[in-house]
Amino acid sequence: MTEKKGLGEVLTAAPSDELRLPPGESELDAFMPSRRMTVNLGPSHPAMHGVTRAVVELEGEIIREMKLDIGFLHRGFEKSCENVTWTQCFPYTDRLNYVSSIMNNVGFALAVEKLCKLDVPERAKYLRVITSELHRICDHLTLVGAMGMELGAMTVFLYAVEARDIIWDRLSELCGARLTSNYARVGGVARDAPEGWVAKTAKTLDRVTGYVDEIDGLLARNRIFIDRTRGTGVVPREDAIELGFTGPCLRASGEPYDLRKAAPYLVYDRVDFDIPVGTNGDNFDRYLMRVEEMRQADRIIRQCFEQMEPGEIAVQDFRYVLPPKPLVYGTIEGLMAHFKIIMEGIQVPAGEAYSYTEAANGELGFYVVSDGGGRPYKLGLRAPGWPMLAALPFMTKDSLLSDLIPTFDSINMIGGEVEQ
Amino acid sequence: MSKVVIDALVERFPDAVYDAYVGVGGDDCAFVKKERIAEVCRFLKSDPGMLFDMAPYITAVDYLGQEPRFEVVYNLLSLKTNRRIRLRVKVPEQDAIVPSVTSVWRGADWFERYCFDMYGIRFSDHPDMRRLLMYDEFVGHPLRKDYPLKGRQPLVQEREVKDIYRGPGPATRD
Description:
The complex is a heterodimer.
Chain A: H1 16-19, E1 36-41, E2 53-59, E3 62-69, H2 77-82, H3 89-94, H4 101-116, H5 122-150, H6 154-175, E4 184-185, E5 188-189, H7 197-219, H8 223-229, H9 237-242, H10 247-252, H11 259-262, H12 283-307, H13 325-330, H14 332-343, E6 351-359, E7 362-370, E8 376-382, H15 386-390, H16 392-396, H17 404-410, H18 415-418
Antiparallel strand pairs in A: 1-2, 2-3, 4-5, 6-7, 7-8
Chain B: H1 3-12, E1 17-22, E2 28-32, H2 37-46, E3 54-62, E4 70-78, E5 83-91, E6 97-99, H3 108-119, E7 122-124
Parallel strand pairs in B: 2-5, 6-7
Antiparallel strand pairs in B: 1-2, 3-4, 4-5
């Protein structure tokens, strides 16, 4: 066989006597001269959801090298937040992971509350957990649906989107928007659940569970799906840790680390749920993690429904929370508090803190620095999908180009959060 | 919580780790001298009593008006002991080069590129010190506090495209 040369170098066709087959080998084993080819994938490519550009160095159909080029969706999240009040950051956080916006709201609210040393009322905690877990189901449904669709199972996508939509219907009854919920606030949540919402949501969850079972039935024993996902995009446990994986991708590699158990926040220490852990760290395991987490999220929500009691949904401290409208229009103190919060922003004590929550794709961290004023001095975002996307060249090295698709799906790269 | 870690660290590196404190919410924090950060991180990762095997988040802050101006913040996590620690490194503007920790945790790669992209802090021994989110032709570092909020930068110079169907190249090409 002709020796392989450096990048992009054209290999000349082997002389005819070299092409003569050794005895006992079929024609199919004959060496076919090929050269490395640089192919540009994206930024807008039907199989790459989101706008990520990958320059791949191909040898036949095998990826030898990959360089990622990101930033097409960069909107200057941190810079924007540094120039608005703390409360005005919430709509920006909606647009990070736009499939599960409430988790970002909650993550940011917890970060500011950590600096303010605020403890939110019980009901607000439960509402935060319920909505977060509902959005976790949405996020995983999106991943599973998109993964199925890109591997040729369109039906799965339709079921997943239907299930996601009925959850969004419930969430829009709660916060008025399907996608950009803007639900959490510093010190609590924006609105209480309307009457009958709990029972209605429980019914919706029954339907969603049915859809999830159906999706799982369509995929988990599907020959094509298994062939394309099992053993592809493998990340061993040690590599996953060193590369900074968190969330389902880390757990699929066999490391049972979940912030909801390791550092419980809100009411996660009061509900009973399991953490699925994979063994192989391949795309199939990452898919299984998602399906199981949806079922666990369902369990968490139902327990929260039982434990939740009526009460306040925000702290009654008008330095942090807008006073109710009768107070604003009826008393001078209420009006002043309202004016101060709107015009100057919440006065967060000077200091710095790193707060982290378990979002759908892993650790969602906010590094907040306050100079004591009404605006964040620095708001650092640790996007959950970031290390996974950074590791994509490692995950797809020396694998088939077609394996890139399930791998890219299973890390669930969301442009909004990774590219900020 | 992990006072043990900070104490051990100060004891091991008395001349590199200083001003250890307990931050808001009980986080353990310490300042580390810039030149020694890679060494301290390597110790934190490999020492059997520490085992900080992951660096979940590395970022930078611009304290404009203070001296030294920049700060690089390392949030570290040990999965085995479930401890967290935050190391802060002061970086002066004139000498904004920090030893890279990519050789300790491979996952630090993009975080350091991000710091370079947004704050202009360079990391020595980094394998691929390029911009991450902005394009190469971009002028300035957007997250610096003195970077203007309003204004436009010219788009990257367009290449001449003669034939829209064939892309760049001489129009006479057949």
